[in-house]
TrEMBL record:
Keywords: FAD, Flavoprotein, Oxidoreductase
Sections of the chain in a coiled coil: none
GO BP term, example: fatty acid beta-oxidation using acyl-CoA dehydrogenase
Molecular function terms, GO-annotated: acyl-CoA dehydrogenase activity; flavin adenine dinucleotide binding
Superkingdom, taxonomy of origin: Bacteria
Cofactor(s) demanded: FAD
Listed name of the protein: Acyl-CoA dehydrogenase
Residue ranges annotated for the Acyl-CoA dehydrogenase/oxidase C-terminal domain, each copy included: 242-390
Matching InterPro entries: Acyl-CoA_dehydrogenase, Acyl-CoA_DH_CS, Acyl-CoA_Oxase/DH_mid-dom, Acyl-CoA_Oxase/DH_mid-dom_sf, AcylCo_DH-like_C, AcylCo_DH/oxidase_C, AcylCoA_DH/ox_N, AcylCoA_DH/ox_N_sf
Family label: Belongs to the acyl-CoA dehydrogenase family.
Length: 397
Protein backbone atom coordinates (compact mmCIF):
# COMPACT_ATOMS: atom_id res chain seq x y z
CA UNK A 1 0.00 0.00 0.00
CA UNK A 2 1.23 3.49 -0.82
CA UNK A 3 1.92 5.40 2.39
CA UNK A 4 -0.60 8.20 1.89
CA UNK A 5 -0.40 9.01 5.61
CA UNK A 6 3.00 10.66 5.15
CA UNK A 7 1.18 13.57 3.53
CA UNK A 8 0.13 14.48 7.08
CA UNK A 9 3.51 14.37 8.81
CA UNK A 10 3.99 18.12 8.47
CA UNK A 11 4.09 20.44 11.47
CA UNK A 12 5.64 17.90 13.85
CA UNK A 13 8.96 18.00 15.64
CA UNK A 14 11.47 15.18 15.16
CA UNK A 15 10.49 13.76 18.55
CA UNK A 16 6.81 13.85 17.65
CA UNK A 17 7.45 12.17 14.32
CA UNK A 18 9.34 9.43 16.14
CA UNK A 19 6.40 9.03 18.55
CA UNK A 20 3.93 8.83 15.68
CA UNK A 21 6.00 6.23 13.88
CA UNK A 22 6.39 4.22 17.09
CA UNK A 23 2.61 4.12 17.34
CA UNK A 24 2.37 2.94 13.72
CA UNK A 25 4.98 0.19 14.19
CA UNK A 26 3.31 -0.96 17.42
CA UNK A 27 0.03 -1.20 15.52
CA UNK A 28 1.55 -3.38 12.82
CA UNK A 29 2.93 -5.78 15.44
CA UNK A 30 0.28 -5.85 18.12
CA UNK A 31 -3.00 -4.65 16.62
CA UNK A 32 -3.39 -5.40 12.90
CA UNK A 33 -3.22 -9.21 13.30
CA UNK A 34 -5.90 -9.20 16.03
CA UNK A 35 -8.29 -6.29 15.62
CA UNK A 36 -10.94 -8.13 13.66
CA UNK A 37 -11.12 -10.80 16.37
CA UNK A 38 -11.39 -8.14 19.07
CA UNK A 39 -14.25 -6.55 17.16
CA UNK A 40 -16.02 -9.92 17.11
CA UNK A 41 -15.27 -10.55 20.79
CA UNK A 42 -16.68 -7.18 21.82
CA UNK A 43 -13.66 -6.33 23.96
CA UNK A 44 -9.88 -6.26 23.97
CA UNK A 45 -7.73 -8.59 26.11
CA UNK A 46 -6.48 -7.22 29.41
CA UNK A 47 -2.88 -8.02 28.51
CA UNK A 48 -3.03 -5.41 25.74
CA UNK A 49 -2.67 -2.73 28.44
CA UNK A 50 0.63 -4.31 29.51
CA UNK A 51 1.88 -4.27 25.92
CA UNK A 52 1.04 -0.58 25.59
CA UNK A 53 2.86 0.13 28.84
CA UNK A 54 5.92 -1.90 27.83
CA UNK A 55 6.11 0.07 24.57
CA UNK A 56 5.96 3.38 26.44
CA UNK A 57 2.66 4.30 24.79
CA UNK A 58 0.13 4.15 27.62
CA UNK A 59 1.04 7.19 29.70
CA UNK A 60 2.02 9.87 27.18
CA UNK A 61 0.80 13.30 28.24
CA UNK A 62 0.40 12.38 31.91
CA UNK A 63 2.69 13.75 34.64
CA UNK A 64 5.72 11.74 35.67
CA UNK A 65 5.10 12.37 39.37
CA UNK A 66 1.91 10.31 39.10
CA UNK A 67 3.48 7.50 37.09
CA UNK A 68 3.05 9.01 33.63
CA UNK A 69 5.62 9.57 30.91
CA UNK A 70 5.23 13.34 30.68
CA UNK A 71 4.66 15.24 27.48
CA UNK A 72 1.92 17.54 26.24
CA UNK A 73 -1.60 17.25 24.89
CA UNK A 74 -0.12 17.80 21.44
CA UNK A 75 2.17 14.81 21.95
CA UNK A 76 -0.86 12.72 22.90
CA UNK A 77 -2.66 13.86 19.74
CA UNK A 78 0.35 12.92 17.59
CA UNK A 79 0.53 9.44 19.11
CA UNK A 80 -3.20 8.96 18.60
CA UNK A 81 -2.84 10.17 15.00
CA UNK A 82 -0.30 7.42 14.48
CA UNK A 83 -2.59 4.76 15.92
CA UNK A 84 -5.62 5.86 13.92
CA UNK A 85 -3.74 6.30 10.65
CA UNK A 86 -2.52 2.70 11.01
CA UNK A 87 -6.04 1.31 11.39
CA UNK A 88 -7.20 1.36 15.01
CA UNK A 89 -10.95 1.15 15.47
CA UNK A 90 -12.82 3.68 17.56
CA UNK A 91 -13.70 1.01 20.09
CA UNK A 92 -10.09 -0.07 20.48
CA UNK A 93 -8.97 3.52 21.02
CA UNK A 94 -11.73 4.16 23.56
CA UNK A 95 -11.05 0.99 25.55
CA UNK A 96 -7.25 1.09 25.49
CA UNK A 97 -7.21 4.72 26.63
CA UNK A 98 -10.23 4.96 28.92
CA UNK A 99 -7.75 5.96 31.62
CA UNK A 100 -7.48 9.24 29.71
CA UNK A 101 -10.86 10.18 31.18
CA UNK A 102 -10.79 8.04 34.35
CA UNK A 103 -7.49 9.27 35.81
CA UNK A 104 -7.15 13.06 35.35
CA UNK A 105 -9.46 13.87 38.28
CA UNK A 106 -7.42 11.54 40.49
CA UNK A 107 -4.09 12.93 39.30
CA UNK A 108 -5.16 16.53 39.78
CA UNK A 109 -7.10 16.27 43.02
CA UNK A 110 -6.76 12.79 44.50
CA UNK A 111 -4.86 11.96 47.65
CA UNK A 112 -1.40 10.35 47.39
CA UNK A 113 -3.00 7.13 48.62
CA UNK A 114 -5.58 7.13 45.80
CA UNK A 115 -2.87 7.89 43.23
CA UNK A 116 -0.75 4.99 44.50
CA UNK A 117 -3.72 2.63 44.64
CA UNK A 118 -5.31 3.42 41.28
CA UNK A 119 -3.28 5.74 39.03
CA UNK A 120 0.15 4.11 39.09
CA UNK A 121 -1.11 0.53 38.56
CA UNK A 122 -3.32 1.71 35.68
CA UNK A 123 -0.41 3.45 33.96
CA UNK A 124 1.65 0.29 34.42
CA UNK A 125 -1.03 -1.68 32.58
CA UNK A 126 -2.10 -3.63 35.67
CA UNK A 127 -5.52 -2.05 36.22
CA UNK A 128 -8.35 -0.74 34.05
CA UNK A 129 -10.39 2.26 35.09
CA UNK A 130 -13.53 3.88 33.70
CA UNK A 131 -15.43 7.12 34.21
CA UNK A 132 -19.01 6.99 35.43
CA UNK A 133 -20.85 10.22 34.64
CA UNK A 134 -23.60 9.52 32.08
CA UNK A 135 -26.87 8.14 33.45
CA UNK A 136 -30.00 6.69 31.82
CA UNK A 137 -31.68 10.10 32.16
CA UNK A 138 -28.71 12.46 31.80
CA UNK A 139 -26.09 12.70 29.08
CA UNK A 140 -24.62 16.10 28.28
CA UNK A 141 -26.56 17.54 31.26
CA UNK A 142 -23.96 16.60 33.86
CA UNK A 143 -25.52 18.90 36.48
CA UNK A 144 -28.71 16.84 36.32
CA UNK A 145 -27.24 13.52 37.45
CA UNK A 146 -29.10 11.71 40.24
CA UNK A 147 -26.81 8.91 41.50
CA UNK A 148 -26.48 9.78 45.16
CA UNK A 149 -23.80 9.24 47.81
CA UNK A 150 -24.64 9.70 51.48
CA UNK A 151 -21.99 9.70 54.18
CA UNK A 152 -22.40 7.08 56.89
CA UNK A 153 -19.54 7.38 59.35
CA UNK A 154 -16.31 6.53 57.57
CA UNK A 155 -18.10 5.32 54.45
CA UNK A 156 -20.12 6.53 51.51
CA UNK A 157 -23.34 4.70 50.61
CA UNK A 158 -24.03 5.04 46.90
CA UNK A 159 -27.28 4.37 45.01
CA UNK A 160 -28.06 4.94 41.35
CA UNK A 161 -27.16 3.85 37.85
CA UNK A 162 -24.75 4.79 35.08
CA UNK A 163 -25.17 4.24 31.35
CA UNK A 164 -22.84 3.91 28.31
CA UNK A 165 -19.76 3.44 30.50
CA UNK A 166 -16.68 2.51 28.44
CA UNK A 167 -14.42 -0.27 29.79
CA UNK A 168 -16.82 -0.94 32.65
CA UNK A 169 -17.20 -4.65 31.93
CA UNK A 170 -13.45 -5.32 32.19
CA UNK A 171 -12.84 -2.45 34.60
CA UNK A 172 -11.32 -2.62 38.07
CA UNK A 173 -12.70 0.72 39.29
CA UNK A 174 -15.04 3.52 38.27
CA UNK A 175 -14.31 7.19 38.90
CA UNK A 176 -17.94 7.94 39.70
CA UNK A 177 -19.78 11.27 39.67
CA UNK A 178 -22.37 11.33 42.45
CA UNK A 179 -24.77 13.79 44.02
CA UNK A 180 -23.80 14.76 47.56
CA UNK A 181 -25.99 17.89 47.86
CA UNK A 182 -29.23 19.17 46.33
CA UNK A 183 -27.73 22.18 44.57
CA UNK A 184 -27.38 21.15 40.92
CA UNK A 185 -23.84 21.52 39.60
CA UNK A 186 -22.68 22.67 43.04
CA UNK A 187 -23.72 19.41 44.69
CA UNK A 188 -21.66 16.87 42.74
CA UNK A 189 -18.64 14.96 44.04
CA UNK A 190 -16.24 12.40 42.55
CA UNK A 191 -15.70 9.09 44.34
CA UNK A 192 -13.63 6.06 43.32
CA UNK A 193 -15.73 2.90 43.39
CA UNK A 194 -13.70 -0.33 43.15
CA UNK A 195 -15.36 -3.08 41.15
CA UNK A 196 -13.76 -5.72 43.36
CA UNK A 197 -12.77 -5.95 47.01
CA UNK A 198 -9.41 -7.10 48.40
CA UNK A 199 -10.74 -10.67 48.34
CA UNK A 200 -11.28 -10.50 44.58
CA UNK A 201 -15.06 -10.62 44.93
CA UNK A 202 -17.43 -8.07 43.43
CA UNK A 203 -17.98 -5.04 45.62
CA UNK A 204 -21.36 -5.72 47.29
CA UNK A 205 -24.16 -3.83 45.55
CA UNK A 206 -22.04 -2.89 42.53
CA UNK A 207 -22.81 -4.67 39.27
CA UNK A 208 -22.61 -4.43 35.51
CA UNK A 209 -26.32 -4.85 34.93
CA UNK A 210 -25.80 -5.43 31.21
CA UNK A 211 -23.20 -5.21 28.48
CA UNK A 212 -24.52 -2.96 25.73
CA UNK A 213 -24.80 -3.97 22.07
CA UNK A 214 -23.85 -1.06 19.81
CA UNK A 215 -23.79 0.02 16.16
CA UNK A 216 -20.05 0.63 16.30
CA UNK A 217 -17.14 0.76 18.75
CA UNK A 218 -17.56 -3.02 18.88
CA UNK A 219 -14.17 -3.70 20.50
CA UNK A 220 -15.15 -1.47 23.41
CA UNK A 221 -16.84 -3.17 26.36
CA UNK A 222 -19.59 -0.71 27.22
CA UNK A 223 -21.90 -1.34 30.15
CA UNK A 224 -24.77 -0.15 32.27
CA UNK A 225 -23.84 -0.01 35.96
CA UNK A 226 -25.99 -0.39 39.06
CA UNK A 227 -25.09 0.95 42.49
CA UNK A 228 -27.32 -0.60 45.17
CA UNK A 229 -26.23 0.56 48.63
CA UNK A 230 -22.60 0.32 47.56
CA UNK A 231 -20.29 1.13 50.46
CA UNK A 232 -16.84 2.57 49.88
CA UNK A 233 -14.41 4.29 52.29
CA UNK A 234 -14.92 8.01 52.82
CA UNK A 235 -11.27 8.45 51.79
CA UNK A 236 -12.22 7.41 48.24
CA UNK A 237 -13.57 10.95 47.77
CA UNK A 238 -11.52 12.78 45.13
CA UNK A 239 -10.58 16.27 46.24
CA UNK A 240 -13.25 18.28 48.01
CA UNK A 241 -16.86 17.36 48.53
CA UNK A 242 -19.30 19.11 46.12
CA UNK A 243 -16.48 20.20 43.79
CA UNK A 244 -16.90 17.33 41.32
CA UNK A 245 -18.63 19.31 38.59
CA UNK A 246 -15.65 21.63 38.35
CA UNK A 247 -13.24 18.69 38.25
CA UNK A 248 -15.22 17.21 35.37
CA UNK A 249 -15.47 20.53 33.53
CA UNK A 250 -11.75 21.27 33.74
CA UNK A 251 -11.02 18.09 31.80
CA UNK A 252 -13.58 18.64 29.05
CA UNK A 253 -11.10 20.47 26.80
CA UNK A 254 -8.67 17.55 26.76
CA UNK A 255 -11.46 15.02 26.20
CA UNK A 256 -12.89 17.01 23.29
CA UNK A 257 -9.48 17.43 21.65
CA UNK A 258 -8.91 13.70 22.10
CA UNK A 259 -12.24 12.97 20.36
CA UNK A 260 -11.39 15.49 17.63
CA UNK A 261 -8.12 13.65 17.01
CA UNK A 262 -9.99 10.38 16.82
CA UNK A 263 -12.34 12.03 14.32
CA UNK A 264 -9.73 13.27 11.88
CA UNK A 265 -7.81 10.03 12.48
CA UNK A 266 -10.78 8.01 11.21
CA UNK A 267 -10.98 10.34 8.21
CA UNK A 268 -7.24 10.10 7.52
CA UNK A 269 -7.40 6.30 7.51
CA UNK A 270 -10.49 6.30 5.28
CA UNK A 271 -8.71 8.59 2.81
CA UNK A 272 -5.72 6.22 2.71
CA UNK A 273 -7.91 3.19 2.11
CA UNK A 274 -10.04 4.89 -0.52
CA UNK A 275 -7.04 6.32 -2.39
CA UNK A 276 -5.39 2.90 -2.56
CA UNK A 277 -8.61 1.20 -3.61
CA UNK A 278 -9.15 3.74 -6.39
CA UNK A 279 -5.64 3.04 -7.69
CA UNK A 280 -6.12 -0.74 -7.60
CA UNK A 281 -9.73 -1.11 -8.70
CA UNK A 282 -10.16 -1.30 -12.45
CA UNK A 283 -13.56 -0.49 -13.97
CA UNK A 284 -14.36 0.03 -17.65
CA UNK A 285 -10.76 -0.76 -18.50
CA UNK A 286 -9.03 1.80 -16.27
CA UNK A 287 -8.35 2.47 -12.57
CA UNK A 288 -11.05 4.37 -10.74
CA UNK A 289 -8.53 7.13 -10.03
CA UNK A 290 -8.31 7.80 -13.77
CA UNK A 291 -11.76 9.36 -13.54
CA UNK A 292 -11.85 13.08 -12.81
CA UNK A 293 -14.86 12.81 -10.51
CA UNK A 294 -13.03 10.25 -8.37
CA UNK A 295 -9.88 12.36 -8.14
CA UNK A 296 -11.96 15.36 -7.14
CA UNK A 297 -13.68 13.37 -4.40
CA UNK A 298 -10.33 12.16 -3.04
CA UNK A 299 -9.01 15.72 -3.10
CA UNK A 300 -12.07 16.94 -1.21
CA UNK A 301 -11.52 14.23 1.39
CA UNK A 302 -7.88 15.35 1.71
CA UNK A 303 -8.98 18.98 2.15
CA UNK A 304 -11.36 18.11 4.95
CA UNK A 305 -8.77 15.98 6.76
CA UNK A 306 -6.11 18.69 6.46
CA UNK A 307 -8.42 21.39 7.82
CA UNK A 308 -9.61 19.27 10.75
CA UNK A 309 -6.08 18.15 11.62
CA UNK A 310 -4.59 21.65 11.44
CA UNK A 311 -7.32 23.21 13.58
CA UNK A 312 -7.29 20.42 16.18
CA UNK A 313 -3.51 20.56 16.62
CA UNK A 314 -3.59 24.36 16.79
CA UNK A 315 -6.11 24.25 19.64
CA UNK A 316 -4.08 21.54 21.38
CA UNK A 317 -0.93 23.68 21.17
CA UNK A 318 -2.80 26.71 22.51
CA UNK A 319 -4.03 24.61 25.43
CA UNK A 320 -0.47 23.45 26.07
CA UNK A 321 0.59 27.11 26.11
CA UNK A 322 -1.89 27.84 28.89
CA UNK A 323 -4.63 29.55 26.88
CA UNK A 324 -8.31 29.12 27.72
CA UNK A 325 -9.71 27.30 24.69
CA UNK A 326 -13.12 26.08 25.85
CA UNK A 327 -14.96 27.38 22.77
CA UNK A 328 -12.15 26.39 20.41
CA UNK A 329 -12.12 22.81 21.72
CA UNK A 330 -15.86 22.57 21.08
CA UNK A 331 -15.39 23.84 17.52
CA UNK A 332 -12.38 21.61 16.88
CA UNK A 333 -14.41 18.59 17.92
CA UNK A 334 -17.32 19.63 15.71
CA UNK A 335 -15.01 20.23 12.73
CA UNK A 336 -13.15 16.95 13.13
CA UNK A 337 -16.08 14.67 13.87
CA UNK A 338 -18.12 16.12 11.01
CA UNK A 339 -15.08 15.39 8.84
CA UNK A 340 -14.98 11.82 10.14
CA UNK A 341 -18.62 11.21 9.25
CA UNK A 342 -18.37 12.86 5.82
CA UNK A 343 -15.07 11.30 4.75
CA UNK A 344 -16.07 7.83 5.95
CA UNK A 345 -19.25 8.17 3.91
CA UNK A 346 -17.28 9.16 0.80
CA UNK A 347 -14.86 6.28 1.35
CA UNK A 348 -17.74 3.80 1.46
CA UNK A 349 -19.15 5.34 -1.72
CA UNK A 350 -15.83 5.03 -3.54
CA UNK A 351 -15.57 1.37 -2.53
CA UNK A 352 -18.98 0.70 -4.07
CA UNK A 353 -20.63 -2.53 -2.97
CA UNK A 354 -17.47 -3.63 -1.16
CA UNK A 355 -17.74 -0.58 1.05
CA UNK A 356 -20.94 -2.01 2.49
CA UNK A 357 -19.34 -5.31 3.45
CA UNK A 358 -18.16 -6.09 6.98
CA UNK A 359 -14.93 -7.45 5.52
CA UNK A 360 -13.99 -3.95 4.30
CA UNK A 361 -12.29 -1.70 6.85
CA UNK A 362 -14.03 1.48 5.71
CA UNK A 363 -17.36 -0.03 6.75
CA UNK A 364 -16.09 -0.24 10.32
CA UNK A 365 -14.89 3.37 10.32
CA UNK A 366 -18.27 4.47 8.91
CA UNK A 367 -20.02 2.90 11.93
CA UNK A 368 -17.47 4.04 14.48
CA UNK A 369 -17.39 7.65 13.28
CA UNK A 370 -21.14 8.10 13.77
CA UNK A 371 -20.80 8.08 17.55
CA UNK A 372 -18.40 11.01 17.66
CA UNK A 373 -20.94 13.84 17.12
CA UNK A 374 -22.84 12.37 20.12
CA UNK A 375 -20.21 11.32 22.66
CA UNK A 376 -18.21 13.73 24.82
CA UNK A 377 -20.92 16.36 24.49
CA UNK A 378 -23.23 16.37 21.50
CA UNK A 379 -22.52 18.74 18.62
CA UNK A 380 -25.65 20.74 19.39
CA UNK A 381 -24.80 21.19 23.08
CA UNK A 382 -21.18 22.09 22.35
CA UNK A 383 -22.16 24.61 19.67
CA UNK A 384 -24.33 26.41 22.21
CA UNK A 385 -21.54 26.28 24.80
CA UNK A 386 -19.13 27.77 22.26
CA UNK A 387 -21.65 30.52 21.46
CA UNK A 388 -21.79 31.53 25.12
CA UNK A 389 -18.00 31.62 25.46
CA UNK A 390 -17.65 33.60 22.23
CA UNK A 391 -20.19 36.18 23.36
CA UNK A 392 -22.89 35.30 20.85
CA UNK A 393 -25.56 34.27 23.35
CA UNK A 394 -28.34 36.75 24.14
CA UNK A 395 -28.29 38.31 27.59
CA UNK A 396 -30.73 36.70 29.99
CA UNK A 397 -32.99 39.28 31.56
Amino acid sequence: MTDYAKAFDYGLTEEQLALKHSAIEFTKREVSPHIEQWERDGEIPREFQKKLAAAGLIAVGLPEEAGGDGGTLTDLCVMQEGFMSAGWSGGLMASAFTHGIALPHLIQHGSPELIDRYVRPTLAGDMIGSLGVTEPGTGSDVAGLTTRAVRDGDEWVINGAKMFITSSVRGDFVTTAVRTADTGAHGISMIVVPAYGPDGQRTPGFSVSRKLDKMGWLASDTGELTYDNVRVPYSNLIGEENHGFYYIAENFVVERIWLATMGYGHAMRCLQLAAQYCQDRVAFGKPLAANQVVRQKLTEMHRQVAVARSYTLEVARRHDAGEVVVAEACLAKETAVDTAVAVADMAVQLHGGMGYMRETEVERHFRDARLLPIGGGSTEVLADLAARHLGYAAAQG
